Amino acid sequence: MDIGDFLRDRERWLERLDIPLVSYDEEVIRVARTHRASLQLTLHFPGEFHLDIHETIDTSLCRAEFLSYSYQLRLGVRPIFRYDDAPHREVGDHKHVFNHEDNVQPSQRPGLAALAREVEAHVTQGDRL
Q1: What confidence score (pLDDT) does residue 108 get?
Q2: Sign of the four-CA dihedral 20, 121, 119, 80
Q3: In this model, does residue 89 exceed pLDDT 80?
Q4: Could you give the C-alpha distances from 52 to 76, 96, 116, in angstroms and in order?
Q5: How confident is the model at residue 127 (pLDDT cuts 50, 70, 90)?
Q6: pLDDT digit string, tens, across residues 2-45
Q7: What is the SS3 assignment for the chain?
Q8: Mean pLDDT in residue range 54-70
Q9: Which residues are CB-neighbours of 116 under 8 A, at least 6 positions away?
């Protein structure tokens, strides 16, 4: 797998989403002469829902190795949940659930299908979960 394959995989995922998509913004930053790239993608859904995807990968081993990631669903500017591997938490990979406070739960990086299901549940329920 190279960076192009990784980006085509993300494009196919966008095409298969069961959630109506209003629009999206994408920025890809490739590091010259390396197998590294950063993808920053914001998906805009009906009802002011936004999914921010930030992934930094390395494909030098012929597969996508995630160097860092963050997936955050927002309603307007209010965060609903975020998965990330930011080093500021003792739990490593984790999920933030924002209800009345920042509730951090240990978690693995979700696959794209699982992430889409969780986003769809929030978008279709209007964040009444």
Answers
A1: 85
A2: positive
A3: no
A4: 12, 14, 12
A5: low
A6: 888 999 999 999 988 888 889 999 998 888 778 899 999 999 99
A7: CCHHHHHHHHHHHHHHCCCCCCEEEEEEEECCCCCEEEEEEEEEEHHHEEEEEEEEEECCCCCCEEEEEEEEEEECCEEEEEEECCCCCCCCCEEEEECCCEEEEECCCCCHHHHHHHHHHHHHHCCCC
A8: 92
A9: 13, 17, 18, 19
Cβ atoms of residues 95 and 107 within 8 Å: yes
For residue range 111-124, what is the model confidence (pLDDT) as tens digits? Answer: 999 999 999 999 98
What amino acid occupies position 22? V
Question: What contacts 72, CB < 8 A, 6 or more positions away?
Answer: 51, 52, 79, 81, 82, 83, 84
Nearest to 112 by CA among 61, 62, 41: 41
Mean pLDDT of the chain: 86
Would you mind telling me the total number of residues written for the chain in this entry?
A: 129
Give the span between the Cα atoms of 93 and 99, in whole angstroms.
Answer: 20
Q: Give the start-to-end residue ranges of the domains of the chain.
A: 3-125
